[in-house]
Specification:
With 220 residues, the chain is α+β, with helices and mostly antiparallel strands. The protein has six helices and ten strands; from the N terminus they run αβαααββββββαββαβ. Helices cover 27% and strands 33% of the residues.
Length: 220
């Protein structure tokens, strides 16, 4: 897998000290929070490579927590992320994982509440840019820098067509799309990056489409 994103941006406005270790980490945490869609009650975060070695000194732990709290990279509350998480009774464990990864700035974020959980693997590729490369065991490529819709659906004929028909109805242009499945006829994951944010009305209609199990979105 290549880690050069086609979505090039200038380094972000952020609470420092490092675009790779702080802004990128915040965006990984925020992506996990948005995809989860509910309040995060607990988190287990595995850090690999450079993240594992320097996460405390570079503020990677602070940034990941801030993202899970819903803070963007330039949110001044980021500096108080530990205290705010404590006040919200969020239980957080950081694990320095020695497993080999393809990229040195990698985090596996496992979050949940009393009812459900989510597991996401993200990498910080520099300049505040990130890629989400795994979600609940599904491989994917998601930049995190553009609006996106993630759709869990049954691997059936017509599922993709039902989604693209609704997007066309609302005049939503697709910038990138991919579909992954673990096995034929089982659950599949559709990832769609769009040129604009989508409305709640559109999301409600997608949820009712054929073969759809669950949907979530990332806004920009």
């Amino acid at each position: 897998m290549k880690y050069n994103s086609v979505f090039d941006i200038i380094g972000p406005v952020m609470v420092g000290p490092s675009s790779s270790h702080t802004a990128g980490a915040a965006r990984i945490g925020l992506a996990a929070k948005n995809l989860f869609g509910n309040e995060v009650k607990w988190a287990r975060i595995h850090l690999y490579g450079s993240f594992a070695k320097t996460y405390q000194g570079h503020g990677t732990d602070m940034a990941l927590i801030g993202g899970l709290l819903g803070f963007d990279t330039d949110d001044t509350r980021m500096r108080n992320a530990f205290q705010i998480a404590k006040e919200r009774n969020m239980q957080i464990d950081f694990i320095e994982d020695a497993a080999k990864t393809e990229h040195p700035n990698t985090a596996r974020v496992i979050i949940g509440n009393d009812d459900e959980s989510l597991e996401l693997v993200g990498i910080s590729i520099g300049g505040g840019k990130v890629e989400i490369c795994e979600l609940n065991g599904f491989e994917l490529r998601l930049s995190g820098n553009h609006p996106a819709i993630l759709i869990m659906h049954n691997d059936r004929y017509g599922a993709i067509a039902s989604v693209t028909k609704i997007l066309a109805k609302y005049e939503i242009n697709i910038g990138h799309m991919e579909v992954n499945r673990k096995d034929i006829g089982k659950e599949a994951l559709m990832v769609i990056e769009t040129d604009q944010n989508v409305s709640d009305e559109l999301m409600d209609e997608l949820q009712k489409a054929d073969h759809i199990i669950r949907i979530s979105k990332i806004v920009s």
